[in-house]
Write a structure and sequence with these properties.
alpha+beta; Immunoglobulin-like; 3 domains; 5-stranded mixed β-sheet; 26 strands; 15% helix
Length: 370
């Protein structure tokens, strides 16, 4: 009998739904990772908990190749399985499959990765940045998480589907290996994870929840490890939501600010000193350029500046709702930069009283029409 054989298991999802049939990739490989299809062997496949202890009644909870309970799978044969009972009914324990040889006892027993069986799961619908610069844009700079609750069919679970269940959420900050984050004060990582307080930390009637969050520490202070954010039901408030699986973001490397790029030779020569100094230095080189080049460049700069001004003007006053205190709907506007409010009682809705340090206001004030 060939030596150095081991059991290969294909990956399985970390979350399963009750009764959902899942493929089980199971075969022997040799010491060179070549498939040993000719080796006669069968594997006993058992449903166990994450700690390795057996499930009390696998006949009611586990189906292997359309047969209830633990069973055997021959080497190289295709197999399927399903778990019919929720993790919630087993003390919220995760399950694993235990695979052990029945003929060659020198082959080591192996286990699948743990998995949960749930009725619903949370998903993140938007792309999460792989690199995030926490100090760009001020303290309101954030990472947006668009979260949805979905069922086995992938449908968003509105209140019409899930009923009147209240689903509050909670968040934890982890490293990308899913280990806990510790701060300098030896507190959990959640102390450096901030959720903006003007948002509801729960799934709404449409099955959605949008959260804006900040990570208040850079990866450099944590051995350059990326972070992940884990969003999951708050079981302290509503234990019955244990049939809902949480979701992890993709890894996020947090940095302070982008490094300034080195300027080209012309930028370095013209880009320092007062505006008058730069104009004089540029004028001394105009003989090297043709008149058509100068006119073309000036028109390009004017066209670009005009479009930027139009864009910033349209952004400075965002419609966020309406007020109807006197029977006449009044639009409420807000600056996305300094969060100043205004309304359309005046003819010009751009009359938002910007904060004195508002970057958007400063940029607009630099542009004057003549």
């Amino acid at each position: 009998m060939e030596k150095g054989l081991r059991i290969h298991i294909g990956s399985i999802p970390s979350t399963l739904f009750p009764g959902t049939i899942t493929s089980l990739e199971l075969f022997l490989v040799d010491s060179h990772n070549n498939v040993a299809a000719n080796q006669k062997e069968s594997f006993l496949v058992s449903l166990v908990y994450e700690n390795g202890s057996p499930v009390a009644n696998p006949m009611s909870a586990f189906v292997l190749n359309n047969k209830c309970g633990n069973g055997y799978v021959s080497n190289g044969n295709y197999a399927t399985f399903s778990v019919t009972e929720l993790s919630y009914l087993h003390g919220n324990k995760k399950f694993m499959l235990k695979i052990e040889p029945s003929i060659n006892q020198s082959i080591s027993t192996v286990y699948t990765t743990p998995f949960s069986v749930v009725n619903y799961r949370l998903v993140i619908k938007n792309a999460v940045p792989s690199e995030w610069y926490k100090d760009e844009g001020g303290k309101r700079n954030h990472i947006t998480l668009d979260i949805e609750l979905v069922d086995v069919a992938g449908r968003t679970c509105t209140s019409l589907i899930r009923g009147d269940r209240v689903i509050p959420l909670t968040l934890s900050l982890l490293y990308d290996d899913y280990s806990s984050v510790k701060t300098a004060s030896h507190r959990e990582g959640s102390s450096i994870l901030k959720v903006f307080s003007d948002q509801s930390l729960s799934i709404d009637e449409n099955g959605c929840c949008q959260l804006n969050v900040r990570i208040e520490s850079v990866s450099k202070n944590h051995n350059s490890k990326p972070f992940v954010i884990y969003i999951y039901p708050n079981l302290t408030l509503h234990p019955q939501n244990a049939d809902i699986a949480g979701v992890y973001t993709t890894p996020i490397t947090v940095k302070s600010k982008r490094a300034s790029k080195k300027r080209s030779g012309m930028d370095a020569e013209f880009g320092s000193g007062t505006q008058e100094d730069m104009i004089k230095r540029f004028a001394s080189h105009t003989g090297e350029l043709s008149q058509s080049d100068l006119e073309s460049s000036i028109f390009c700069v004017l066209d670009y500046g005009t479009k930027c001004n139009e864009l910033l003007t349209s952004l400075q006053s965002q419609l966020i709702g309406h007020e109807n205190t006197s029977g006449i709907p009044i639009e409420i506007h807000r600056c996305p930069c300094c969060w100043a409010y205004g309304d359309n009682r005046n003819a010009n809705s751009s009359d938002v009283e910007h904060d004195a340090k508002c970057t958007l206001k400063s940029l607009l004030s630099m542009w004057t029409w003549t």
